[in-house]
Amino acid sequence: MNDTAREKANPFFAPYDTLHDTVPFDRITISDYEEAFMEGIRRDDEEIDKIINDPEEPTFENTIARVDVSKGVGYYSLLDRVSTVFYCMLSAESNDEMDALAQKMSPILTKHSNDVTLNKKLFERIKYVYEHHRELNPEEQMLLENSYDGFVRSGALLDEDGKERLRALTEEASLLSLQFSQNLLKETKAFELHITDESLLDGLPDTARDAAAHTAKEKGKEGWVFTLDFPSFAPFMTYSTQRELRKKMYMAKNTLCTHDNSENNIDICKRLVNLRREMAQLLGFETFADYVLKRRMATNTANVYKLLNDLIEAYKPKAIEEFAEIEAMARKMEGDGFELQPWDFSFYSHKLQMERYNLDSEMLRPYFRLDRVIDGIFGLANRLYGITFKENKDIQVYAPDVKAYEVFDKDGSYLAVFYADFFPRKGKQGGAWMTEYQGQWIDYKGRNVRPHVSVVMNLSKPTDTKPSLLTLGEVETFLHEFGHSLHGMFANTKYESLSGTNVWWDFVELPSQFMENYSVEKEFLRTFAFHYQTDEPIPDEYIERIVKSRNYNIGYSCLRQVSFGLLDMAYYTKKDEFTDDIVAFEKEAWSKAMVMRQLPDTCMTTQFSHIMSGGYAAGYYSYKWAEVLDADAFSVFKKNGIFDQQTAQRFRDEVLSKGGTEHPMTLYKRFRGQEPTIDALLERNGIKADTDNSQQ
């Protein structure tokens, strides 16, 4: 096949020629990915050869921010284009063929990445620019420092033996983290609780029954099917009166990837911890956490542990009190001898919540019809920032239930493309995330290339009888991911690698968690929360109950997150080879934050994607770190008005649009006028504590 024919055949090889250059999902086949990957690697190598053989003295322009359009715009960005689409699809729309290709490509791509970062001649040019450069503006300076530091942190200063060892470690780690994710997805999707006796549905609300009937129908089965996907699992654990079935669901969920089968992740986790420790030590760090935290706002392990321990001190008395109240509720209902087990917690916690606040997620669900929630969240963005969303069915999507929108700025100019992927599917990972199909940058002609962002969630699906009706928790999830997407859509920097969400990891959750604050604000709820059948607005008393119950189980919830942070740190502060029994190690690692008796067979580690395969290794604490920031930031809006456009504009200008062009604390202080304190978080959570020494 000649080059021309090949380029026509593979959509990645030519301009997409679509509206806003969006991905033509309908034209991409699986074979296109591999071909584009291999050609992308070849072009990368060609570009690097050009840089290292450039006879001119190395400069910022010809080495760090080099632009080569001699073979056409986009020629040298092929690898980025195909990688972006492939890995987005691997999470949102995978299948066995995609999984196999990911396994095949992983060592090839890792080797290529190592070939680049360990290229001695390339590093010499970067080092020369680092030491001899013209005066740079802050963004250029940050790009240079990131480039130099990135190479150093990837082994550029190692001797040849060290470089070869690092190659081997990174290739193995890359393959294992992929294997971890694939095992977890397969094992999660393999489980189902199939019920044919209607009496076993006792306690379950109609929404849960309808959803389970819908799932059964999709699977070609009679009766009802419950899965480990959150919209199915959570209602079952909260409402089902069938204790043995709750136990079955709980144990299936909490023993994922620990069984004697091909999806077991125990040895993979051990090996990943050791690989990362060895990588860090090879690069001159005592532990992997030391390596990671050097480029985080927290800066070191002592600050992380201080945050986690301060939170335990502030919240544990409350958590113990909450647990005792739920236990008392269970014994009031079942008798004094009743022993509360983990699969009982959600059930009796809900009973107590109903007794205390007369409020549960099912009462609210009729007011949170998905299309109305979408309008509400888009409307919020409009009130704060003046932006508008317009669905465009001409933009290609990768699955029938994905929606694509054009986003316009307050002056009517085009801002971004926004994809929304709401519901669970067979080939889709659990959880929720934001990602990008295209970043933002300013090209060599000065054109501002706008981003294509996507939010992916697993919300309650519509059924044969009802539209998609969300819980308040799902509305919060949507707001959270939407916050990330605003960070992406408002990006306005010159270099893509510093743009949007490309910020330090313990800063990236600020824009997302900030948006969650709106979920309990009456003025916001009033804009979209109408009953899906009667169109009646959500009653005032319901909103009052939402506000009153906002901090229900706040101590327990906080400690749960802190426990995950402790577990993460325990693994990645290891100085010696990790040989412990994973289950026993886990129990000990987070024991300080536990208030409920732990079961001997359960295990979180083997399904803890964040720290094993998701980029949060030695960084899970950042959710709590960002919570301090988001509470502090929202306190400004509470003071000035939650829809105050001036405050919102300042937040957009100083935080959301700046990406990683400056140190995150510099950006935050420019918005806030001071460093954040823990006070606003404690106040929001109704926790009374001495905050004199609680400065972050």
Describe the oligomeric state of these chains in a short phrase. Answer: single chain
Low-confidence stretches: 689-696
Portion of residues in helices? 40-55%
Task: Tell me about the largest β-sheet.
Answer: 5 strands, mixed
Strand content: 5-15%
- What's the gyration radius in Å? 26 Å
Give me the count of strands: 9
Mean pLDDT: 95
Look at the helices and sheets and give the structural class: mainly alpha
Contiguous helical run count = 28
Query: Which architecture of the domain at 366-550 per CATH?
Result: Orthogonal Bundle
Short recap of the structure:
54% of the residues lie in helices and 6% in strands. It has helices at 3-9, 30-52, 60-64, 78-92, 96-117, 120-131, 138-153, 160-190, 206-218, 230-239, 243-254, 266-282, 288-293, 301-334, 342-357, 361-364, 370-385, 472-489, 510-516, 522-525, 540-549, 554-572, 582-589, 609-612, 622-640, 645-656, 664-672, 679-684, and strands spanning 193-195, 224-226, 388-391, 402-408, 414-421, 433-438, 441-442, 448-449, 452-456.
List the helices and strands and how they pair.
Layout (H helix, E strand, L loop, with lengths): L2 H7 L20 H23 L7 H5 L13 H15 L3 H22 L2 H12 L6 H16 L6 H31 L2 E3 L10 H13 L5 E3 L3 H10 L3 H12 L11 H17 L5 H6 L7 H34 L7 H16 L3 H4 L5 H16 L2 E4 L10 E7 L5 E8 L11 E6 L2 E2 L5 E2 L2 E5 L15 H18 L20 H7 L5 H4 L14 H10 L4 H19 L9 H8 L19 H4 L9 H19 L4 H12 L7 H9 L6 H6 L12
Helix pairs in contact: 2-4, 2-5, 5-8, 6-7, 8-12, 10-15, 14-15, 14-22, 18-19, 19-25, 26-27
Give me some keywords for this one.
696 residues; Neurolysin, domain 3; disordered C terminus; mainly alpha; 5-stranded mixed β-sheet; 28 helices; two-stranded antiparallel ribbon
